[in-house]
Amino acid sequence: MALNPGTKLGQYEIIAPLGAGGMGEVYRARDAQLGRDVAIKVLPSALATDPDRLRRFEQEARAAAALNHPNILAVYQMGTHEGAPYLVSELLEGSTLREQLLRGPVPVRKAVDYGIQTARGLAAAHEKGIVHRDLKPENLFVTKDGRIKILDFGLARLTNHPQVLEEGSPTLTQGTEAGVVLGTVGYMSPEQVRGQPADARADLFALGAILYEMLTGKRAFHKPTAPETMSAILNEDPPATSQIVPSVPPAMQRVVQRCLEKNPEQRFHSASDLAFALEALSDAGSAATGTFAVSRPRSSWKWLAAAVIALAVIAAVTFWLTRTPPSPVVESIVQLTNDAQTKTGTMEADASRVYFDEGTEGSFRIAQVSVNGGQTGEISTSVLNPIIAGLTADGSSLLALSGGFIPEHETMWLVPLPVGQARRLGDTDVLNARMFPDGRLLYLTRAGVFTASKDGSNPRKLEELSKYQDMPRPSPDGKRLAEIVDDEKTKNWMIEEARADGTGMHPLVQWREGLPARICCLRWSGDSRYLLFRSYTEGRWDLWALSRQKSFLGRAPDPVRLTNGPMSFTSCVGSRDSKQVFAVGELLRGELHHYDEKSHQFIPFLGGISAVDPTFSQDGKWVAYQLYPEHTLWRSRSDGTERLQLTYPPTAVGFARISPDGTKVAFSDNSAKVFVVSMNGGSLQKLADSAVAPDWSPDGNLLAITSPSGDFFKSRVIDLRDGSVSDVPDSQGTLGPWFASQETLIATRNDQSKFVRYDFKTRKWSDLVASPEKFVNWETSPDFKYFIYSTGGNNPTAFRIRLPDGKPETLASLKDFRVLDAEDTGPSLSVAPDDSILVTRDIGTQEVYAISVKWP
To answer: Which of 25, 333, 602, 690 is disulfide-compatible with 593, CB 3.0–4.6 A?
Structure first.
């Protein structure tokens, strides 16, 4: 609604339009009673019907009206004209800071002055419990006499307690709970990007970004897209202001850096503290241009000078001995691939290409992309289900492992690049393998850690390492080995290092409070100066770096977090020139589908919920499932109603099955323990250690489980009536047993190329079905009518067998369905009450990124 000159709003008469301002149109008006000109912001009636717009408009009025400070826009009154709310405020003459920045950087002296005024205004707001949450150059007005005015409190948050805000605090903003992102991209704090509650320190981050922009003329965080900018806020530090404008004083650079700390605890404690720091800079600048002439006796001057020099030397030495080593800084994150394919496993890189695995378990293929990004290409090889394990120093060949869904007996292969015939290395089945820079092999078996020649011959056991039963990682210079191991006494992790021959093992760092509880997958930087690893916190993987350089006093440095969400980074490898880290970044999301045999189509199930491994009660009325990617266990009715969470972090569910009577759920977790929990929730009851994938017998008295046994797995049974655990006779080398009836189990052999059936009456095993393709997942239907399974290979397919006997029947090809390959459960596959198969579509993103790091 446009207002014409002469229109009267109570005591105010419109003089002329001033343009748009925030959420409304702004007009110059005359206050007839007080004889002064004012500004009136009007929210158009079309927007006044929007509850959120109206709430924000009213909130801006109440927040600003609660404040009386020379650096905050003064609000006089709020009213309504023909259904349109309006706001009366003081009339400002000048321009916004954004308009000034369009002409270039602001002189340092003026930037400091503007920063001081803004910080003072924020301090006044914070003292009233008001957090702005949308501070940016557009919301800072510079009057003609150089005074800063803070505008637009439309996203402000008001709490009963100033400074620190809690999630449940009263607020002027309705609907801004944790998880909702508020603010302007480029000036939001990391906590705002994550949708977490933002306190006063979020405004300090925004002011730091504004100071940076005033000093340099460039935005601190500015990428081509909003998601990339948000990622930069979370993971990257902008270049130092002095790199762009050398005249910026170091002290000013430190103030800006402190404002832009990712962790709110490391920023200034309050806006008052920031104002004080800027005022000190301003005073120092004035003092630098002044003159001091104080006469002192010459002898006193000499002693004073000597004392000052001595104290300075002591302070410098103390600082040098005790200082914290500088930390690596992420400068940019660039996406290299865009092929929408699932990526997993180990990555390798040479000077020009990055190599990685694509596909799901049982159907891996080797892919590559330029270190500068571009089209993804496939490395053709005859190796079945190849898993990258290493790269020769000259980049001529990849070390690959060929194995099944559960890596117990993998074979080692040398895959020539870019093409060539693969060659098997040695005749030993391994659990994992690595490659030294000179081509020698390092591999792990149940018997320990071994080195071998390039062709796999002349194995030698590394006795000192073999007691850990873990897989060390050789350094790029070939001089050292490092690996993550569990401390037998504390049960916490350590990162240890040894010489290349396995001797001289010693710890580099071990877990303590403040470090992540779960880490894995150690790698080296290209120059062997840093160790890279990833940690699991808040439902995602972040990358960390550990410097091998100790301080003068021998103090080991703490690991440093390189990334901090929202993207989860999995596989990683350091570039050969040590300037980058290549990693797979993923945003995890699934969509549950069932296969309709009539239409031959996959159709969303339970509304396409992001869940895996659903299990049903025998009457089909209840379902339990793992919410993905959290891997928490939930139950509901089969129509999705009456949802109830059954497990909570840190428990991560791997496999789950509802009992035949529908009252309990048995499941295994990521630490290979088996539990049972009531369908109504409550405490967990542990049933077994070193076991996975529990399955109920039809009468509900037994649970079949898989347990490790030497170099193999074996099938076992828990009798729930007395708690006893017994081995299934002659089950060595079987895994994943499922009850096909009260008297029958079906399991697969270790190499996953054959299903076998056990008869409890005859106590004998017999072959059921075999396939040249690896079996990757299998399950019995809730009514025990069918046994369904899926294969890997180049044409992954779902099959079923009618029980108690029958031949395999093809159900559906999974080749063109991007099956979710969930951690700890493999490619999804389940059975619905109507005997249709259930699979989870992977609708997340997994792409390769180049993370540029500035290493100290």
So the answer is: 602
